[in-house]
Fold this protein.
Amino acid sequence: MTNWSQQDHRFMGIALQLARQGEYTARPNPMVGCVIVKNGEIVGQGLHQNYGDSHAEINALKSAGKNAEGSTCYVTLEPCAHVGKTGACALALVEAGVKHIVAAMQDPNPAVCGKGFEILNTAGISTKVGLLEAQARELNQGFVARMERGRAKITLKLAMSLDGRTALADGASQWITGSAARADVQRLRARHDAIITGIGTQLADNPSLTARLSETDQQALPTVKFRQPLRVLLDREAKADPSDKIFGKPTLFGVSEEQANVLNESVWWVTDKARALVKLSPIDNEHIKPIEATDLPALIEQLSIAGLNQIMVEAGHRLAGQFLALGLIDELVVYMAPKLMGDQAMGLMQLEIAQMDDCPELELRDIKQLGNDIRLIYSIKS
């Protein structure tokens, strides 16, 4: 077991803090931070801020300049060994003359895992891995999940009254929660690669499903490229109309329309293709992609293959229950309002449970007050 010093923990902690600054903008790439240290002092630092731009190590090396020679590099993820949209970070570290590498974790991508360390070790650079690994994995849960088990992390977002109701008997549900909770939902959307809803919610609420960041949030992102999440509508019979809000082109922050989504579409319309194409104009076809999926696992597989790491479900009680019953939900985010809506109102989700042993087990991971509302975050116990 490696004996890490207090200094090691401090520098890696700073690297993790840097990485988190890319939570809205690095996706679907993992968040990565890097700190370069020489003679006990930080001489360079960087993060992977924008998808398609320089990785954290490259930005840190630019910051360090000639001071990188003979230094120790603390990085939250194994330096990459392949050339994609940017060059290989492992080679850049070798060329800069870095002497030691301390990484929080190996890259979980089976195609690259260990190859970055191999390049570094071959060049005579010492490498250590495992410092604050749990925190690094937590930071990029979706990326780790997709690499290790082959599918994205899926979060189910719910809003309910104190008595567990989501809408009145007539379907009215706006607004259960207050403004602080609704603003938090926008930030939650902005951290996800895709948002899924069903035709029932679409017909009842006509949601846009975009992340509408507040002016304060936008000011915190003055130089970064924020892409809206991909919107996914489950509509087997093509009941939706292309004029609905969900099909609109989203607000962009610092990017062109061509850069707006890594998939080059704003919406996946999961439907009968023939019916959908009749409704779509050539302009609609630029950003709306009608696709077919046999079932929910097949859809999630398609999204994961497309490179999406974190997917959020915002749907009615039937579709929410289907996702949970199929074992597709990893996390519940529940916003609870101090309201009582009565026993005639709709329940949280539709689940067929015959006995107590069949109840899904949840683990409370976080609780936070937002105005008069409470946000609860649960993991699903496997």
About this structure: DSSP finds twelve helices and 16 strands in the chain. The two ends are 29 Å apart (CA to CA).
